[in-house]
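Closing statement on the protoporphyrin IX containing FE sub-project.
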Amino acid sequence: MSAHAISFAGLNFTAEESESLLDAGLRAGMDLPFSCRGGICQACLLRCTDGVVPAHAQRTLSPSLQAKAYLLACQCQASGPMSLALPDPADRLTSCLLHDSRQENDYLFLRFATARQLPCKAGQTLLLDLGEIPPLILEITAVHAEAFSIEALLHCPPETMLPDWLRHSEFGHAFDLAGPLEKNAGSDSDGRSLPEADPLLWTELEDGKKIRAILEDFYRQVYEDSRLAPFFTGSTMGRAIDKQYSFLRQLMTGEACYFGDRPRNAHHWMVISDEIYDYRQDLMQRTQLAHGLSDCQIARWSRLENHFRNDMVKDSPWPRRIGGMAIPFEGFAEETLSVGSVCDYCQQIVEPGTTVRYHLRLGKISCPACSQASPAPGSTG
Ligand code: HEM
């Protein structure tokens, strides 16, 4: 029996003709995805980018995946050298069962179960391509991995074509989704792109009154939470609430009413993992639920926040970035306000048109009086 040279994601190993690519790869320490090892779950789906794919390794795959040289590594015995890659997420279909769908204004909220654990997170998108109507883009707003359950939002103004089973919320209807796909690449940019506004949500939430009540309740819990509170050392709860409130107001209404850093720069020094991001979002969603928001309203609020997920989640601090340039962590700059704000030192209102000084890392602003009182107010953070 001969052995063949296999490359996977730039790493090389050899596979005997008598063993599967999965066994050979795992033996060589490759990080290959797998689950059932019996050709059923398709967790070990790979794409052959060079070489001959044995027919046996494709026999349970759809014709479109076969045509794109996909194979199941647990069913594949190499007959020659091969180069392999992870599946393109857009090609990867997951079978799903609809649990619930509900239309509110221009949004459809969906809850469904997946036949296999789908490695995805809130903020990513999934594609529903039914062929007869244009593909529908679902934005994931919550993932309950242990229950194989996903919540998602579909923006569907009245002219959107929807299949009947979705419009009428047919419990148990089976459908396939492609993905997950990344919506906002994040980190390379200044994080200046904005999600599409949702002014109706602002109105539904009593022109912001309900939002403030939720934020007050949310931050009270954040400041008592052993995992989240350490991020807020040195920040007052009132400031966190005010900033978040005007940021959300800008996102929902589309009006320029927020003065402060965009999430990328506001969180540039914070090491926020995917897990802690989800932990915070879970706390936020539970607070929204306790204040009587509908599932769809919670998903619509989450959509606005998740737009910035990739601008915040990272495993080491980023420099602040303005106009594409990395700027120092410490120091002060001056800015003339285009919208009103509140001085972070004396808490007095600062009118639009006033030139304020702000700390480059912390983003705290000081009014002219506080700036004069001390050449570098807040330099201790
Ligand atoms: C685990 C996740 C998060 C952590 C640990 C976190 C932490 C913080 C902290 C410590 C501050 C500074 C507060 C201050 O200076 O007083 C802040 C500010 C802010 N955060 Fe977050 N945050 C998280 C997620 C989010 C999300 C999802 C959003 C919304 C998209 C957001 C939007 C903001 C905004 C707008 C500010 C104010 C920026 C400024 O001071 O100019 N944060 N955050």
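Confidence is low (pLDDT under 50) at residues 377-381. With this model delivered, the sub-project is considered complete and its resources will be redirected to Aim 3.
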